[in-house]
Amino acid sequence: MAKAREGINWSDLGVEGLKLRGTATGARLMELPKATSPEKADRLAARLKEVLPPEDAVRVGGLRFNPYTLGSIWAKCPIPAAKAISSNKLLIGCTSARVTLLDPRPMRCFRCLEPGHATTMSSLKLNPNPKTDVAKE
């Protein structure tokens, strides 16, 4: 958000009354008032894409060895790129690698470890001592 504040001239876009909220997953949501025209929202979205770094970069983890395989690498990439390489083998230098798509992990509460909700909806109450942060029923 600091990059967006520094890189965008808000008065040039004509955006007023912008509300910033946090979502259940921890993402940031920008809301414009209903009276604001859709063209202003489109201009803001285009400017944010210019200022913020792209989210479609490929991230690759380290090579991990397993007693039953030669090795594996975990990579995070955009969905179109993953679909393009999932049906074929990926050529890396002079070797080829098999690609397996992983199922998305469900949202999980860090307090009770139950799937399907975030911390704010947790049924467990926390100990009043913030240093221990131990859940109790």
Describe the structure.
The protein is of the alpha+beta class. Among the domains are: 50 residues, no CATH class; 39 residues, no CATH class. The protein is built from four helices and ten strands. The protein is flat. The chain starts with a helix and ends with a strand. The mean pLDDT is 76.
Helix content: 10-25%
Major β-sheet annotation: 2 strands, antiparallel
User: How many runs of DSSP E, i.e. beta strands?
Assistant: 10
How much of the polypeptide forms β-strand, as a percent range? 15-25%
Q: Report the total helices.
A: 4
Oligomeric state of shown chains: single chain
User: What ranges have pLDDT less than 50 throughout 5 or more consecutive residues?
Assistant: none
Instruction: List SSEs in N-to-C order.
Output: HHEEHEEEEHEEEE
Radius of gyration: 22 Å
Strand order in the sheet with the most strands: 1-2
| Shape call | flat
| Residue-averaged pLDDT | 76
> Strand pairing plus helix content: what structural class?
alpha+beta
Terminal Cα span: 37 Å
